[in-house]
Design brief:
Blueprint: H1 2-17, E1 26-31, H2 36-51, E2 55-60, H3 67-78, E3 85-89, H4 91-98, H5 106-112, H6 114-117, H7 120-126, E4 127-128, E5 131-132, E6 134-136, E7 140-141, E8 144-148, H8 149-155, H9 163-175, E9 179-182, H10 187-212, H11 216-219, H12 222-235, H13 247-256, E10 259-263, H14 268-274, E11 283-287, E12 295-298, E13 300-304, H15 312-322, H16 325-335, H17 351-366, E14 369-371, H18 381-395, H19 402-416
Parallel strand pairs: 1-2, 1-3, 9-10, 12-14
Antiparallel strand pairs: 3-13, 4-5, 6-13, 7-12, 8-10, 8-11
This protein binds beta-D-galactopyranose (GAL).
Length: 417
């Protein structure tokens, strides 16, 4: 569908801009980085480009997880109005590449040695048909707990190692009158948490089969039912006002000590960082109980569009800056993610960042690095959306039982495939 929509405009925009001669010294970027931590991270990039004489034309589209941003992008591209680049997740990059609207950064990639420094798991999504079409910015991972240390001390809690430990810890918070679990009731947040629940419930092999291979038997298995049971348990620890809450407001509840814990990707750490909070002192980062040793990842990519010739120099400058070692360190320290290259020292990262880098390396080597289904790295967008929809209906009581949830999930994924 994307292809049909876009193909005519690709030609039209190429022609419309062909007459320009002088380079446009401006980078136009579509993104959904509008929270405090995200904006601070983006400022690192704006600063680097400004030093090279490039102006920044911001196209922010608020909404964590990027669904609203992707709708806006589709409209822009359909109108032949290509940004220099857009923040994108995994399979979306491949969709736009298949539609023939992406540029070709291969020359820059060769010059900069991206083939050697960017992990294969990311190249799978940034290289299409042998050509580099996107620059990976970072690696996030979703199977984390973010805990307020003072609340943890107050309730006498310790690191939960199993799902049952986690439930016991949430009970302690409840008994102390603190909201145990900070959650934003938006489908992408609920599904992002469920990624971790599935990994914890079924283990690494099960996660891969169900959430990356979309294996039918696994999707309708008792283990998947148990995963929904576990999700239902977690939801009982959420405050009554969670519907529609933005993810960063849920993080703020933990930062302020109004809630004990949030299950969220490590962009949450960007919020702690922006609030000047220190791991070990103010907050704790643990892997989601029962998922230690595995990493569920996503990576923000800057998808590079086939812009007219006079805008290509700015695009190359953006791509080069994005994958430079110094930027990869400076940006990811602020963003909460870890570098998209394997050769960046962890020196400037805090304890959670150092752990993130080490965990990623270990998971990559040990075959326990898996794409997040909620975050665009498990399956194409249509399937991911079907998944988010079913999980959210379950969380909000429109799907009542785990049996029903599994049936709906299998059907929705089948229809979307
Ligand atoms: C994710 C993205 C992160 C962060 C988060 C919340 O999809 O990968 O960089 O921005 O959404 O907005």
């Amino acid at each position: 569908m994307l292809r049909k929509l876009l193909i005519g405009t690709a030609l039209a925009s190429g022609l419309a801009f062909a007459a320009h001669a002088e380079d446009v010294k401006e980078v136009q970027m579509l993104h959904w980085w509008t929270s405090g931590g995200e904006a601070a991270a983006l400022n690192v990039l704006k600063g680097d480009l400004a030093k090279e004489g490039y102006a920044w034309k911001d196209v922010p589209v608020a909404g964590g997880g990027g669904d609203a941003a992707m709708t806006a992008l589709k409209a822009m591209v359909a109108a032949g109005n290509y940004p220099t680049a857009s923040q994108m997740l995994g399979y979306t990059v491949l969709d736009y590449a298949a539609a023939g609207v992406m540029g070709d950064l291969t020359e820059t990639a060769k010059k900069e040695g991206w083939d050697k420094s960017v992990p294969a798991a990311l190249q799978k999504f940034s290289v299409y048909d042998g050509k580099w079409v996107a620059a990976p910015v970072n690696v996030h991972s979703v199977n984390w707990l973010w805990i307020n240390k003072a609340v943890m001390d107050k309730i006498g809690g310790t690191e939960p190692k199993t799902f049952d430990d986690f439930i016991a810890l949430l009970d302690k918070a409840k008994a102390a009158g603190v909201t145990p679990l900070a959650l934003g009731g938006q489908n992408w947040q609920e599904a992002t948490m469920f990624d971790s629940v599935v990994l914890s419930t079924g283990g690494p092999e099960f996660y891969k089969k169900a959430m990356n291979d979309l294996d039918d038997e696994s999707l309708k298995s008792d283990t998947m039912k148990k995963s929904f049971d576990n999700l239902a348990k977690l939801v009982t620890y959420v405050d009554p006002n969670f519907s529609g809450r933005d993810w960063n407001l849920a993080t703020a509840m933990v930062i302020k000590g109004d809630a004990l814990v949030q299950v969220m990707g490590d962009w949450a750490k960007g919020e702690f960082h922006a609030a000047n909070k220190t791991p070990g002192t103010d907050f704790l980062c643990y892997r989601f109980p029962g998922t230690d040793g595995s990493v569920i990842y996503n990576s923000d990519m800057f998808g590079m569009f086939n812009v007219p010739d006079d805008r290509k120099a700015a695009q190359v400058a953006l791509a080069t800056a994005t994958l430079s070692k110094s930027f990869q360190s400076a940006f990811n320290v602020v963003k909460g993610s870890v570098p998209a290259r394997t050769d960046v020292p962890d020196t400037d990262f805090d304890a959670c960042g150092k752990k993130g880098i080490a965990d990623l390396k270990k998971a990559n080597e040990g075959g326990t690095l898996f794409g997040s289904l909620a975050q665009g790295y498990g399956a194409p967008p249509a399937v991911a959306n079907a998944y988010k929809d079913v999980v959210s209906k379950f969380v909000h009581g429109q799907i009542k039982t785990s049996d029903e949830a599994v049936t709906e999930l299998v059907k929705a994924i089948d229809d979307a495939k």
